[in-house]
Design brief:
Elements (H helix, E strand, L loop, with lengths): L1 H16 L5 H24 L6 H23 L6 H24 L1
Length: 106
């Protein structure tokens, strides 16, 4: 739930203070990440080959952390994996720090 609140705060910050040209990028990468979470959950349930966690984290790092939080909540996927969620929060913190630095320097 904290992740969802952070995600909504991020989108609000982008809309109010940030470069609006970044918003489509974040939304597109987040949608792909959300779909990857759904695909991985389906594969986990059917015993098929899984989506590598490195790929999920890679898309989070590219800006899909919003989709990752939504996917984790919607599909109840990866939420109990402490190491995975710790990395997701770390990636989200990097995005917030980067955005904060951009605001200071702009």
């Amino acid at each position: 739930m904290i992740g969802l609140a952070l995600s909504l705060l991020w989108v609000l910050m982008l809309m109010l203070m940030g470069p609006l040209n970044m918003l489509p990028h974040y939304l597109a990468v987040s949608m792909i990440t959300l779909l990857l979470f759904g695909l991985d959950k389906r594969r986990a349930l059917t015993g098929a080959r899984r989506v590598p966690e490195a790929l999920l984290h890679g898309f989070e790092l590219l800006g899909g952390w919003l989709g990752a939080f939504l996917g984790a909540q919607m599909f109840r996927h990866k939420v109990r994996k402490v190491e995975f969620m710790t990395r997701l929060y770390g990636i989200t913190a990097l995005h917030f720090l980067g955005y904060g630095g951009w605001l200071i320097l702009a």
